[in-house]
Amino acid sequence: MILLLSFMPSSPRFLLSKGRDAEALWALAWLRGAQADIRWEFQQIQDNVQRQSSRMSWAEARDPSMYRPIAIALLMRFLQQLTGITPVLVYLQSIFHSTAVLLPPEEDAAIVGAVRLLSVLIATFTMDLAGRKVLLFVSAAAMFAANLTLGLYVSFGPKSLTRNSTVGLESVPLGGTEQTLVTPTSYITLVPLLATMLFIMGYAMGWGPITWLLMSEILPLQARGTASGLCVLVSWLTAFALTKSFLLVVNAFGLHVPFFFFATICLVNLLFTGCCVPETKGRSLEQIESFFRSGRRSFLH
C-alpha cells in the first residue's frame, strides 16, 4: 500500500482546501485523463470547497438535504450488519461443525473465502456497468435465499454425528425438532456449504462494497467527515452487538432462528433499496448533493 500510494496524488478537494490550486488542477487532470475537459468540474469543486470551509450549523443540520442522505447512509450501515455477515464469518467453522456437511469444515471455510474474493472482483467490474441499485437488489435477494435455505436446513435437515467436536456452538439445539442423525456422506449435506457460498457471494457483490461506496457518494460535502465517522461507529457497534448476542440466541432458541432473522432483514433491505437509495452511477458528487437539495426522489425527474 505504501508503494502504491507513492504514485497517488492528493485529492483535488484536499489541495484546494489548502490553497494549492495549481496542484489541484494537475491532480484532477491526472485522475480524469489527458483528453478530459475538467474546467467545469474544477469550478464545481472549488465552489463546494468554499462552502465546506464553514462549520455546519444546527439549522443546516435540520435541512432535508443534510439529514436525508445522512439517515440513508446510517441505515445502510445498520442494515448491512444485520444481514448477519459478521457473526457468520466469525463462527463459520463452528456453524459447519454444527451441521451435517460433506467436506471438512476447514475446507468449507476456505472455499467460502475464495468465493468471497471472486465475488468482490465481480462487483468491482460490474458496479459501474449494472448500476448500484441493481447489484443491491441482486445482493439482497441472494442473501435472503441463502439465509432461508440455511434456516430450513438446520430445522429439518440431517444432524451431524460429530456435534461434540464443535467449537463455540456445543450446546446448539438444531431447530428444536427431531432430526435424522447421519454420517455426512449424502449430497444433501452440501446444502450448508452451497447456501453459505451464495450468502457470501451475494454480500460481496452488493451490500458489502457498494454500501461503503454509496456512503462516500451521498453524504453532504459539508458534513462528510463527521457523518462518515458516525456511519462507521454505527456499523461496528451493530457488528459487535450482533456477534456478542449470536451465541446467546443460538443456545436459547436454536441455530435456525438467527438465519430466519437474517432472511427477514434481507427482505427489509430490498424494500429499503427500492424506496430510499438513489442510483448514483455516472453522477458527480456535486450532482448528487444537488439531487438531495432539490428533494427529488429520482435523477430522472
TrEMBL record:
GO molecular function, one term: transmembrane transporter activity
Name by which UniProt lists this protein: Solute carrier family 2 member 6
Domain Major facilitator superfamily (MFS) profile: residue ranges: 1-281
Natural source organism: Rousettus aegyptiacus
Domain of life, source organism: Eukaryota
Regions that span the bilayer: 134-156, 190-215, 227-253, 259-277
Keyword RNA-binding found: no
Keyword Membrane included in the entry's annotation: yes
